[in-house]
Amino acid sequence: MPESTNGAFGNLLITMPLKLSMNSNTHALILGALMALGLAASLSILAQDDDEAAVTGPLHPSQLAAESDMIVLAQLDRVDYERRRGFPVGGNAWAEVLVRYKVDSPVDLVRIVEEGFGPDRCYFPDVPIWEELPRFLLFLQRAEGRSHNGHRGGCMLEVLVTADNQYAVRWPQDSLILDEDELELVEELEFIGPGSTRDVTDNTRISREALMRDYYMEDVGDLTFRYTRGIPLDVFRNEIMGSGSLTRDRQQRGT
After folding, report:
1. How far apart are CA 154 and CA 167, in angstroms?
2. Are 230 and 171 in contact (CB under 8 A)?
């Protein structure tokens, strides 16, 4: 008996009597059915991808704390990113650890590796070399060797310094998700140092008004706005992240 194969389905062999294999209408029906099955499978895969994309996004800090292998307050040290059209698509960043909240052992410098492009990737912002480098609360997961990846549900929250030399998590942040009752923990604070202000020279009047309204920024002159809201870091640790997921052993934290 001859075997008939279609080029688009070269791995699929259809064995039929000669009379049937020569029937073009039958061929068309078979090919149509196979193509429909292939299309259905493709749509199923796309639907699964859409479902996976739907569940990604910023997570509440308590969930980040529970799922992360390392949580530290760290100051950016340097970055080495590959860029395409000005955007990072892979590379490494190093951050100097200031406070250890969840660690396997004492660590002073952490390496964060990343690849790919997307809002869930853990890339640090560009900072002019003459400015003091920013500080972040980092939520990390183990990678190869002693390196770490950023948590896909939110790897960093910006932490600012107050006028009385205390740390506070800036609020609001696009990646910071809080419950309604936790908004009562937000305080009006006087921030100083890196990240506390924003140059609005290139912003339109409408966008400046939006920054003042939505981000509670104040105009401090010279086309500069300053953040004014945050949550003290010790309050954030105890009331929002929760101490249950953090390292309690002082020797393990190196304190």
Report:
1. 20
2. yes
Q: What is the chain's percent helix, strand, coil content, to nearest 5? A: 30, 30, 35
Contact 148, 141 (CB under 8 A): yes
Residue type, 8: A
pLDDT digits (tens, 9 = 90+) for 123-144: 999 888 788 899 999 999 999 9
Lowest mean pLDDT among 46-50, 58-62, 176-180, 227-231: 46-50
Among residues of the chain, what percentage have pLDDT more than 70?
A: 75
What are the b/e assignments for 64-84, b being 16+ CB within 10 Å? bbeebebbbbbebeebeeeee
* Distance from C-alpha of 181 to C-alpha of 178, rounded to nearest angstrom: 8
